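> example.struct
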């Protein structure tokens, strides 16, 4: 995938160019509908499908006190998913105060003037420019002079309600992972790096990989049946994850620890995608390490049982490939 950081760079990626625009936090089914329209347009014209997005999330700059947790804290995870959807060009505009002050007219003119741009696809509620004054109608009114088609994609619904990043974030926060899977079209996952911890899991008979994650919206604390994908490997490994502060051993910082079933070897420095399935139990404070160790063995047995009878409620993210060098 070609990565760009300015609109001007789009002139060099080839044409005809079909561009989906949005923040796309979470890449839920509504976002995917916008992206699919750009990919389909490119297939018909023999052109190039691309995505224009922003980092950081605009609200983090415009109103940081109201900024929610991200569904993706990692641009790498978003890029991997976009690649799996067939996107060939990714334009990531750095959102700062200068961009926030740019008028809708100025942004539109710079975008539509890109040589070879033939289609722009946005969601029905897309707003842009200073004060969010730019609308789909405004974009379309300007596009005729440039021979660019503007396509507006209606909202996608789930359980009778419009899918949105806000609704997805709320479902994650409240632990409704089945609902999350329906809105995403895949199981929820996080992508992080394995860092060295205190090696308490090894002492308790279940060595864990400590996953360094960002500030994304995670599900409630507890123990989960999960699948783990290791960069450079194909397929998933069955695992059990603990998310929380580890109150029994005096933890204070929220951590994600994962024990891969029937795995031996070092994972330090590796990139792991953790795909969440059924929650086994909430986080508990035990009387001591011996009681905690007994519970860990029960958790491991329960996760093995769930996977054996195919009740772990975790859907492999077959389309998210973190392989390669």
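> example.seq
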């Amino acid at each position: 995938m070609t990565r760009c950081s300015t609109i001007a760079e789009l002139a060099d990626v080839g044409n005809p160019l079909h561009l989906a625009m949005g923040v796309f936090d979470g890449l839920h089914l509504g976002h995917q509908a916008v992206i699919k329209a750009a990919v389909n347009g490119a297939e018909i014209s023999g052109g190039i499908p691309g995505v224009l997005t922003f980092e950081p999330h605009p609200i983090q700059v415009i109103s940081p006190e109201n900024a929610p947790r991200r569904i993706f804290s990692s641009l790498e995870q978003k890029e991997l998913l976009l690649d799996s959807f067939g996107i060939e060009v990714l334009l990531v505009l750095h959102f700062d105060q200068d961009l926030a002050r740019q008028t809708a007219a100025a942004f539109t003119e710079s975008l539509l003037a890109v040589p070879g741009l033939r289609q722009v696809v946005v969601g029905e509620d897309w707003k842009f420019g200073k004060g969010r004054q730019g609308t789909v109608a405004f974009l379309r009114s300007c596009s005729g002079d440039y021979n660019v088609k503007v396509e507006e994609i209606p909202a996608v619904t789930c359980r009778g309600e419009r899918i949105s990043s806000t609704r997805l974030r709320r479902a994650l926060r409240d632990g409704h992972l089945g609902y999350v899977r329906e809105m995403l079209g895949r199981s929820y996952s996080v992508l992080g790096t394995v860092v060295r911890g205190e090696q308490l899991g090894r002492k308790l008979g279940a060595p864990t990989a400590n996953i360094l994650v960002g500030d994304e919206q995670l599900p409630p604390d507890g123990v989960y049946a999960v699948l783990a994908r290791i960069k450079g490997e194909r397929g998933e490994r069955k695992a059990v994850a603990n998310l929380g502060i580890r109150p029994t051993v005096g933890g204070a910082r929220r951590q994600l620890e994962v024990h891969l079933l029937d795995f031996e070897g070092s994972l330090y420095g590796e990139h792991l995608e953790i795909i969440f399935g059924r929650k086994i139990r909430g986080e508990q404070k035990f009387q001591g390490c011996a009681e905690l160790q007994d519970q860990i063995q029960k958790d491991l047995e329960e996760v093995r049982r769930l996977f054996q009878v195919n009740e772990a409620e975790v859907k492999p993210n077959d389309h998210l490939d973190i392989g390669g060098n």
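> remarks
The mean pLDDT is 91.
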